[in-house]
Model the fold of this input.
Amino acid sequence: MPDAAAPERTDPHAPRIFQRAQPEGVPPLELTGERTLPDIPQENYWFRRHAAVYEWIRTRVGGQRVVDMACGEGYGTDILARTAASAVGVDANADAFAHARAKYERPGVRFVRTLIDLYDEPCDAVVFLQTIEHVTNPGDVLERFRALVAAGERPAIYVSTPNVLTLAPGGAERSGNPWHVREYRAAEFRELCAAHASRVELYGLYHARMLALHEFALEHLHWDAVHARLGITERFYERFTPAISERDFRLVAEADAAALGGLDRALDFLAVLTP
Done:
């Protein structure tokens, strides 16, 4: 699918895109490429790709005090709150904070507007997804999180990042995303995490179900050339992309990833750090 079914999000000449059908009183956010958003059909691939990881973490943080760092729009904090004793979304962006606080009013959910390295409330688990590639001091950030969960019950830090080998164009060293400071290969990401934890579990996120079939069609049946010749590219993706769900992705432990081509073939990495 072209750019994984996502529109070009860094083109200054592209039309501005905002969330649709927000609840009354909730200001819609603009899609800029800095964060992913729900409620935008052409962004659904990226939203579901991120939400699938939140859903997996949700099953592991039941009854815990969870902090969702750099929570953005707030959908991930809301997912975590379905099982957590409490979920706090932390973000420094004023628009994202106002939106999240107005939209997600589930009991046990709270949003705090501050920098991630200034937040200081102890918790059991920290979730930090698709953001470490944006920071200049990742080691300091992980140490900060380690201190927050130090006295927690079953303390853990969940960190995810895209795999540069599948994010960047073939042969390129990085993706060109202007908001990314550093992009990681599996070994580099494991090394970073292991320096700040006593134990690291590494997982890879892969396509499943409908997306796995689509990936097969692209690689082996040249589907991208076929739909272009038939003149149905736009119509196909207008239907296909909004139909993607969290079930079209799956997390696989590093030990089991060989059957899928290894972690080098993963879309994203998720590290579970035990302090």
About this structure: Residues 37-274 form a domain with the Rossmann fold fold (CATH 3.40.50.150).
